[in-house]
Structure formats: C-alpha cells, structure tokens
Amino acid sequence: MRAAAVAALLGLFAVLSGPGGARADEASPESAETTTVGDVTGFRADGAVYRLTAGQAEARVSFVSKETFRIELAPDGKFTDPTGDDIVLPQGEPPRTRWKERGDRYELSTGEVTLRAYKKPLRFALHRADGSRVWSETKGLSWTGEKTVQTLARGANEQFYGAGMQNGRGNTTHRDKTVEVAVDYNWDDGGHPNSVPFYLSSAGYGVFRNTYAPNTYAFTDPVTTSAKEQRFDAYYFAGEGADAAKDVIGQYTDLTGKPFLPPVYGMEIGDADCYLHNANRGERRTLDSLKVADGYVENDMPNGWMLVNDGYGCGYEDLEETAQGLKDRKMELGLWTEDGIENLGAQVKAGQRVAKLDVAWVGPGYKFALDACKDAYQGIEDHSDARGFTWAPESWAGAQRCGVQWSGDQSGTWEYIRWQIPTYAGATMSGLAYTTGDVDGIFGGSAKTYTRDLQWKMFLGTTMTMDGWAAMDKQPFRHGEPYTSVNRDYLKLKESLLPYQYSYAHEATKTGVGMVRPLVLEYPDDPKAATEAAKYEFLSGEHFLVAPVYQDTTERKDIYLPEGTWIDYWSGRTHEGPATIDSYSAPLDTLPLFVKAGAAVPMWPGIRSYRDRTADSPLAWDVYPQGNTSFTLYEDDGVTRQHRDGKYATQRADVRAPKRGAGDVSVTINESRGSFTGKQTARPYEFTVHTGSEPRAVKLDRTLPELTSKAAYDRARQGWWYDRDDRGGVVHVKTAPLSTAKKFTVKLLGTSAVGGKKASAAALTAPAGQEAGAGTPGTVQVDVTAGRFDLTDTAVTLQVPEGWQTATANVPGRIPAGATRRVEVALTPAKDAEVRETRLTALARYRTAGEDRTSQQRLAVSVLPPAPEGEAWASDLVWLSETNGYGPAERDRSNGESGADDGNTLTLAGKTYEKGIGTHADSDIAVHLGARCTAFTADVGIDDEINGYGEVAFSVEGDGKVLWTSPKLTGASATVPVHVKLDGVRQVRLKVTDTNGSKTGDHGDWAAAKFHCA
C-alpha cells in the first residue's frame, strides 16, 4: 500500500502533521510511504503496564521481570497478537514498577532498568539503574503498509549476534551485515533455516520480535530492524557484567522456553534411511534396517537410534518387530513424519522414540512447524514414559523446547564442513541448544570428508548420518580402513564424553545456554573472539576448544587460542593464550582439540552404548590441574521423565592445584546428592591427572600402591602409575568401589600443575608433506625445540604401524633453551604398506631442569607407490586419491552406478577404447609420478552412452599448477586429444569439472590415458 492508502485506512489524515500525530518521515526518500510515530498525546499507568498515545497510534509497555519488558505499537490503536500463546510462555507475577514524568519524557522503572519514553516525538531509550545507557532509538518507530521498523543508535564497538541458524556465520559478529530472519529453504552457505527473530548485543541487551512475520536486521549505523507486518511487538532483555550475553539468553529462554533435555540415546549418533521400497537402493523391507544395525554392532560402533522410513514415499511395516530388534541391539526406533502425526500414538506404542518432522515445513508457515514440534514431542510423551525427541529443518522461536534444529539436505564437501563450523555455535546465541547437520551431508561426499566431518560433530550435542541418497551409504564403516577405525575412535570418544556433554545438556535446561559455544560467549572482552580469527572453531562446553579441519590437508592453519593455558588433547603440549597456532599437524585421525587448564572432565570409559553401563562400571575423571576449579556432574536415568519430578543426582569434583609449577594436587569427589532409579550406590573411580611431573606418592585414605607398568595397572584393583610417555606425563589412578554417598579425596604429593614443575617441556613439530616409499628405507624429519631450559640425553623414536621398521635417533650433546634441532629418524614402511596417508607419532625423551620428560607429536607421512615405468596406462596404476561425482571412478569402463566395475565400454564419438578412466563430474584423480615421466596423452570427451547430454571441462594439474585445460565439452562435442609435457612433475591430478551447474550426464572419459615414463 502507498502512504495515502495507509493513512486513509487508519484515519490519520487529520493528525499526520499536527502535534501527537504520526508524521511523514521527511528525511527518507520513501517519505511518501514511511510514517513515523509522532508526539505523545496521552499517558496511562496500570501496574506494570503503561500506555502512550500519539494521535491515533498507541504504544504499550509491559514489564515481565526486573530486566525484561515488552513494547508494542499499534498504528491504528488496536493491538493484535498473531502468535497468541504459541511462542511466549505464561510468565510469573510482573515486577513492581514506578514511573515519573520529567519534562521531556516519562521514566518507567524497575529496580534494575529504566525505560525512557521521550514525548516529542515518542522515542524510547533504555538505561540501567546507575543511569548508563543500554540502547536508544535515533528516531521513533516507523511503518509502511508492509513493515514496521525500529532504528537504534549503534555503539562505537558494539557487536551483534543471534538471528537463529545462519548458515556460514553467527559465531562472529553481525556488525555491518544485514541478516534475514525468515523461511528460505536454503540449506547451504548463506541460507537461514531455523531462523529466530531474536538478536543480542555486546552492549548487554537482547531483542525478541514476537511475530511470525519475516524480519530483516541491518546492523549498520544506525541499526534498523524490521518485520513485515504493520504492528510492532518486541521484548527486550537487559543483561549485565561479564556474563551479560548468557544472562540475556537466559531471559529470552525464560520467555520462550528452556531447551529440552534429550534422552541419552539422542546424544549418541543416529542413522536414517528408507528401507521399504527404496527407489535408490532397490527392493528392501523395514526389517532390513536390523542388518545395518548389526553393522554398527559388528564394527563396535556406537549408534543410538535409527529412522527406518527416511525417504519420500517411504512407508514402514513390521514396526513392533523392528523396534524390538533395534532395542536388542541397544538402539531406538525413529520415524520420519511424512504422513503427518495422526498415527503417532500407535507408532509410539509400537516403539517409536524419535520423530523427524520434515512434513512440518510442507505446511503453512512457522506456526505449523512449531505446532508439529510441540505435538510430536508431546505425542511421544503421552504414549510412553520416554522423553519427547524431535528433529526439524525449518522452525522458529520456541522450537528449542521441543526439538533438535537440523540444517537440512547438503552435499558432503570440504566447503560443507567449512561453513557448518560457525553455524551451530552461532545458533547457541539464540537459545538453540541442539543444532546440527548430517555427517558428510546426504549427497556426494568421500571417505575423507566423511571422517573429517564426523570428528568435529562428535563435539556437538546431537548428530546423525543419512543414507540412501549418495552413491554409497553413509554409515561410518562403509569406506573401510583406515576410515572405519578413525570413525570408531571418535564415536567412542563421544560415548566416553557423554557424562560431560549430558551435564551441559542439563545446564541448558536451567540457563538456556547450549554446550556448543562461540568463543565470544566465554571471552566477551577478547578483541579477536568476535572476528574472523575465531570463525572456524568453537567451544564444546567451557573446557574443549575444537578447530575442525575443513580442507584436504594434514595441517590446520591459524588456530586462535584465547586467554588461559590450553593443552593439546593428543600430545599434552601446553599453549599460553592469547595466541595463534600458525600450523597444527593434523593427520587424518587427528582433530585439532584443546583442553582448558583447570578442567575436570567426567567420562564413561570403554563403552559402545550407554546401556553397557552396569552397577559396577567406573566413573573416570580426566583432570588438567591448574588452580582451584570444579565441575558438577549431572546424572539421571537417561531416558524417562522422572528427572522432572526431582529424581536426579549431582556430584561435584573439586580440584586444588598450584597455579603454576610444583606442588601437591588434590581431587575431591563430593557425595552424590539426590536419587534416581538405577543410581550407583558405589562405584570404582579412575583418574587421569595431567601433571607432567611424577608425584612422590598418591594417597586416598592411605598411600595407594605404586605400579610399575601399564599391564600391572590394568590388572590391579586399585593403585597408581605414572606414564611419562603419555601426553607429556600423566598420573593414572584407580580406586576400588567407593560409596557415592561419601566424599573422598585423592592426593598427589610432590607433583605439579599441568605442564610440569618448571613448565620446561620441549615441543615437537614435523615438516609437512613428508613421504615414504613402501618397503623403501628412508627417514622422517622431526624438529625438537627446547623449552625454558636446556635439553640433554635427547632421543627421538617413532611409533609406527605393525610391520614397519624404525630406529631410535639419539641427539648428541645439548639442545640449548629455546633452540631447535632437526632430527632424522630412520623409517622403512612395510612392503605391503597401503598407499595412503599414515599417521605416525614422534616421541622425544630427554632430561631438562632436573626431570626426565617426554614430548610427543602426531605427524602424517604419505606412503607412495613405485613410480611408473615405460608406457604406463593410467587405469593400471595405484591412485593416490580419487573423488568422483557419482560412485567410484571406473578403470577401463565408463562411469557406472554406486559399485566398482559396473560401467560399460568406454566409447567416444563412435570409437571404443579398451583402456581408460570413466568418471562423473566433479572428479579428481591423483597419481604419483616421482618426476620419472615426460608426457601424458589421452582422448577426452563425454561418453556416447549419454546421448548428447552433459557439459564438462577436463584439466591436468602437476604439482599444484594447471598444465592443460580443455574447452567446454558437451555430449555432442568431438573428441579432444590430450598431450601434456610432464618433465619434473612428481604428482599429477586428472580433473573433470561440471561447467553448467547441472551434473546430469557428466560422464567424462579419459580414454587411452597413458603416462610416458623413463
């Protein structure tokens, strides 16, 4: 509508330019369309509710608590609330308020804040009780026929966060950016699924627009926030102090609902696929899901639940038998709600415990989605003793109380990993405690991207893997070794960390703050925490800093560590923040992971499923002593709703240690307070205390026996053992079963804080890009850097796979403090060593500052095949790596389906070829040449089987440089001959790239592909 029509509709012609009326915004080029509220013409107070009229427009201020209030504006004086009671929950008694008129303004106050309502024109500003300003409007609220706008002054250093799940952003500041808050079904980088009309500011406040309308927030100067509706309705939250952001999130979730507490199985990985009449996988039955479940069991891999109908048009059968079969395998049944939730009661009675709600976003808008979340959640609870547990890809404010917000359907790529890292930590700033994406997406993907993606997602609260849409299924055991073993290790690491993660899940029900956090939430005064420096990392709880690898590399660049001491989880090396690690060695099995000094992390050791826990199972504490710290473990039965009736327990660990250097360390485990079904009345405890210095004794109620080896420690019922070779030096302690009703203290005498008595450990690094030939003697380079003191008696060894050979390298003389010595360690891989990247661990033993110390470092060595000789067909060689757009690249066949050797005869322009490579864009094949080859020849084009479809380009790269590219080729193009000189090239990559955005028919052939070598 135009302004005249709006004015006529509202009856405002008589007051547009007069005192108290709404008036045209003369400063705006849209002055014919935009109307700004005018002068105050009336004021009324009714308890904690205040009304201010401005001509026909009326504003209403309602205080909810001492720090939370609501401002509404009705341009026509008639208030409406389209959200009703959908989002905002019933609140308690409003606070006591007071008001004063002070000449140019009214002041509406609680004991904590004062909202100033200026009269000419009506304009709001929020101040704290001490008079300091929180925010202020630079102009009054304005509207058009389509939207309402608030305009706020922006502070010189003010930063902004929130707006829900903003793909590719959110964990760093939105300052100078425009953020959309609406449904867009864009599940890739730049999209905003699971939007939330809420933002918070580093100035210590937050704003929630109570609406279903799309919002736009421009965090420019000034800040303009709008909603596409002709009404204004916003709640404001005032936080204070170092934890102001957490306080604001807490107030927002007091209003819209605290995050739910998932069942423990919901925090294990889930698996989703269609099993009944799967168009992509052939004829299957629902009970076939149990065969996949057996794969997890046989591969000793955790899995908490399975969706058995996750595919369009996919139904189910034999539901009760399937549910029971999954329970027998320590898993729960989930269903996708494609047919709605009308049958949910019967499905839950049959055993369903998870509901995935894609159907919700097919319906009419956010209310439908939010209702589906609430109804499915409640349906599970109405028909079982289980907790509601739902997943949704498009939701709104309030959904945090009933489900996991999932980022939708994506393709597994390095870019997918990159932009997901800031997405989920950023969503925490909007009260979304459980946000996640499928491991390696549902399309595309590769063994490497799957493994790298799974690693860091084990530090999210929830995640799943989805099958049936890519060329091969997405279970973590599908790619074989070494990927299966690496995936198993990380799945079991998450399983062991469930007590830690579950404790944070409980904390979120009280505070609204999820476990996955941007650095700025814990370090708001760190100038780098809000910047690009911290964009691709996050905190998992307060104690773990995770910096995922999001490129095809064995190094992670530019890891930022905020203030404090940070310990490399794998090596035990300490880093003092704030600092940036320029290059971190990250072989395929190594997620860059750091632990904050002072951490005491509760763990369940050695289990595949939480159901493996028995009355005799130990509780382990992983301790990084520094100063006086504590952690409170939360426990309940993990699956029922009895915790809501107070059936749960807490147990606090208190660590007392020196802030630096030598001293005693004590770990006190206090009595467990509370009770629940299945609570352990007694249990053994295990401790790993990262001191870096051997204690002279360890005491419980009396001195514990010192054990001399890992084997002796494993056999003993209780005792301690100092392993100097374990992550810089770790004290391992175990106890006999102890009553959970009594506190006890483990004392380590004559040891130190984390890092050792004199923080004198050496640092090991290794040059990137090291290579070794299978069965060929060679060396690995390791750099040893002394710490604050000289090193003597230094010896470097390598931990290698079975069948490999190595020898200790003794370093003669002394390595001066701060100096670096490069050491070459002999290495011969096994003759049958696989051609792939292999992780080794370098171990340096030395003496420094009067102590025997050990340092270690993981490093990657690429095992290479023999270089080709003579005339070598590319399809006959061992490939260093291979990625392909659909299924595997084929040797001497055209691209086929999801399996190997299922393609057809290679045919280009009517000519058939016996030798060559059949690919599907995008494809990338790496071959080791060892600088022995002079040329590469081939014929390239799109295979005749495509009948004229497709459009691609071919390229040849040597040692990172493009040596040749083809023109764009279609299925109708003539065959292009290739002749590329390769003098001195060590590694070549053969690439086929889609060029028109549609990969349909992109079957690119490297026909007669041959290397000409010495």
UniProtKB/TrEMBL annotation:
Residues 868-1013 form the Glycosyl hydrolase family 98 putative carbohydrate-binding module domain. InterPro entries: A-galactase_NEW3, DUF5110, Gal_mutarotase_sf_dom, Galactose-bd-like_sf, GH, Glyco_hyd_98_carb-bd, Glyco_hydro_31_C, Glyco_hydro_31_N_dom. CDD domains: GH31_N. SMART domains: NPCBM. Residues 1-24 form the signal peptide. The keyword Aminoacyl-tRNA synthetase does not apply. It comes from the Bacteria. Keywords: Glycosidase, Hydrolase, Signal. Belongs to the glycosyl hydrolase 31 family. This is Glycosyl hydrolase family 98 putative carbohydrate-binding module domain-containing protein.
